[in-house]
Amino acid sequence: MKVNGKHVVLSFVAIVLGFLISFSYQFTNSHTGTVAEGKQWQREFEYREKLIRLEETTKRLQQELTEKQQSVREIEANFAQQEKSFKTLVEDIEKLRMFAGEVQVKGPGVTVTLTDASYVKLEDNANNYIVHEGHVHKVINELRTAGAKAIAINGQRLVQNSYIACIGPVISVDGNEYNAPFVISAIGDPEVLYSSLVILHGVRDQLVMDNIEVKIEKKGELIFDPYFEAKES
């Protein structure tokens, strides 16, 4: 009886001890797993927070970059506009200097040679067969209307306020006298200038009707020296 009682007690103790060991092991594993899961969740939370902050920083930097790029484009456009304005201004100045006769100019164009009539009827007035300033003006006005950039008479460069006068058999251009034939040269588009002169009932036909001999030629290149004042006597 005593031996059996001890066995029962020992068996009970062993069972309880096993239960306690098993419970402790399970509890420890459960607690360890919970702690590990907690740490994993904490790490994931921190990663998400960092990712959100990184995305916000990237978005802010992207916005700043866009604004800087827009500023650069505006500056470039402003520089381009200024460069274009300067270029246009320089071109305008060059055109004004050219029209004022201050610089040499060259280019294609036409020449119009006006010559007194080679035959004069005895009963007619000789003045009806020579070139007058009106004939020269007709040619010059037509050339300017057709877009001539520069015009010269017998090499004398014309400017905006040039004065042409007929003095007997000669023509005075800004105080410089020239004898016939009078060669009127114009720089511009040769085709346009030529066509404007030879059009039906145009300047050429009118001059021929006035007994003036007219010769019109296209030129590949003409060179005009700068304008010069009247020669000193």
From TrEMBL:
Species in which this protein is naturally found: Schinkia azotoformans LMG 9581
Keyword set includes Coiled coil: yes
Superkingdom of the organism of origin: Bacteria
Lyase in keyword set: no
Similarity comment text for this entry: Belongs to the UPF0749 family.
InterPro entries in alphabetical order: DUF881
Gene3D superfamilies reported for this sequence: Protein of unknown function DUF881
PANTHER family found in the cross-reference section: UPF0749 PROTEIN RV1825, UPF0749 PROTEIN YLXX
Record keywords: Coiled coil
Stated name of the protein: Division initiation protein
Annotated coiled-coil segments of the chain: 44-85
